[in-house]
Design a protein that fits this description.
- The chain is an alpha/beta fold and 186 residues long.
- The chain has one domain: Rossmann fold (3-Layer(aba) Sandwich), CATH 3.40.50.
- The protein is built from 7 helices and 8 strands.
- The strands form 2 sheets. The chain has a 6-stranded mixed β-sheet, with helices on both faces.
- The chain is globular and about 40 Å long.
């Protein structure tokens, strides 16, 4: 269960809906005592999993007694600011956003920080999970961006997996700097 310290959330959950039946997601959330789902998808619609289209999933969760909030505009993995992309432009078409979004740049934006502050306030009030579409957190911005920022702020982050496991989010390992050919010694 979520706890709070001086009004600040100290625990947040994450989940990816994938293409499972909506009832399976509800069961997973209920089993972990989640009272609020904050949708962090930039585009909360899917032709492959229409049960998770924004209005559908909001209705399903609310019918199960779980509140729903949308935050994809501030916490989504596909920002509308071209400066948040490594190429300086918003990519078109089928893009691997984990490879092209500059998440450290996103983390400095005022709209992102405001969204994160709102998430923390919500999580301080009730057990909260952020939801995206990718089941595997290692392949999702909720781990590469949101969880990293939360960990830096001292918040415990738990990834819920479809098999019922919970995994503690860990800081990403910084990429080692490539050593030059002529490195000074001694």
């Amino acid at each position: 269960m979520a706890s709070e310290s001086a009004g600040t959330a100290t625990e947040i959950w994450t989940v990816g809906h994938s293409n499972v039946p909506a009832e399976q997601l509800v069961d997973l959330l209920t089993a972990h005592g989640i009272a609020l789902v904050v949708d962090v998808r930039s585009a909360p619609y899917s032709q492959y999993a229409p049960q998770f289209n924004r209005e559908n999933v909001a209705h399903t969760l609310q019918a199960a007694g779980i509140a729903y909030a949308y935050a994809g505009d501030t916490l989504g993995g596909r920002p509308q600011d071209p400066a948040c992309y490594k190429g300086g432009a918003i990519p078109a078409g089928n893009t691997k956003f984990l490879e092209v979004v500059d998440y450290p740049a996103v983390a400095t934006r005022s709209w992102y920080r405001a969204g994160l502050d709102r998430l923390l306030a919500q999580a301080a009030a009730q057990p909260t999970a952020i939801m995206c579409s990718e089941e595997d957190p290692a392949r999702c911005h909720r781990h590469h961006l949101i969880a990293q920022t939360l960990l830096e702020r001292g918040v415990a982050v738990w990834h819920l997996r479809h098999d019922g496991r919970r995994e503690a989010a860990q800081p990403l390992t910084p990429q080692p700097q490539q050593l030059g050919l002529f490195t000074p010694t001694g």
